[in-house]
Every structure is written in structure tokens, then in C-alpha cells.
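Backbones bend. To wit:
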Amino acid sequence: MERVMSKAIEFEKENFWEKFVRYGYGFKKNTSLKKAVEYSVELFRLAEDSIWFVGGSLDAELWANPEVIEALTAAKDRNVEIRIIFGPMLDPENNAIRDFWRKYKDEYDDDDRVHLYKLGYRPQSQFTVVDGKHVRVEEPHIPRQPRRAWVRHNTLMLARRLELDFTALVSQAVEMTQEDQL
């Protein structure tokens, strides 16, 4: 009985804090692939200037989803800068992100608005920053396992902090070129 009560109290605490973060700070939480796609697409549609994201292997479940690729393509067509960091390798099943990157490197190489960077290690944090104010931060997870992430709009302080992390990661990464094998 004690164990059951302990679990119930633990659940209530977790539920309380999730509600507190969500309502107190305006965060939206996603715990499913469907919500991850929905919130990522929402962020990419808001983009007016830049989309910067850091992912591990950019797993195909999320990053090759047709809605996500369509939203990235629409952002690129609006002349939004897109910078992507992954490491140490792309998900072998994620041909969509490879094709997206190659298409824009082929067609628009002169405008230099799509960049893909490779780290020699898996980044500890995975996040997206849009226009320096909208963010999506994933909790650490194993690829192909349930993911949890938090999304917040108009959060300049958090976005600026993540941009610093992004800049530090870019300095450690190698920018991919057309000749590189992904």
C-alpha cells in the first residue's frame, strides 16, 4: 500500500510541476511523435529570418516527416536561413533531410542560406531556435524511443542562451559540402 501511495504522490508532483511549467511559463509539452511534428511545423511556419536546430542523428521519424520537410521547404522559399547541426552521423533512414539539403545546395548555392554541420560526437542537448525568440528543447532520449520536448514562443532570454550554445557547437563542427558523403 505504501508503494502505491508513494507512486500516486510522485505522479501528483510530476503532474503539478508539468502544469506549473506549462501554464506559469507558457511552455507547451510534447510527448508523442505526432505532437513533435505538429510543434516543429508550427515553429518553422513562424520563421521569418532563421531556423537553427541541433539534433543527434536527425532521426527519420521526425526530421524526414513530410510535414516537417514541407515546412522547412516553405521557410527556405521565404528566404529563411536554415542551419542544422547533427552528430556523429545521420539516421541511415533519413533520406529526406539529405535530399532537402542537397536540393538547396544544388539550386541555391549562391545564396548560402542552407547549412548542414557535422559534429564528431552526439550533442548533449537537442533544440530548435526560430528567429531568436521561439524555442523547442528536447529532453535527452534514445533514438526511436518516446521523446519529450518543451516549446515556448517569445522567450528571448532562453533563445539567446541556446543561440550561444549553437554558435559554440558550430565552431566545433565541420560544414558539409556537396562532395561529402552523408
User: Anything to note?
Assistant: The chain is about 45% helix and 20% strand. The helical segments are 2-25, 33-46, 60-63, 66-77, 95-108, 156-172. The chain has two domains: 1-28, 31-175.
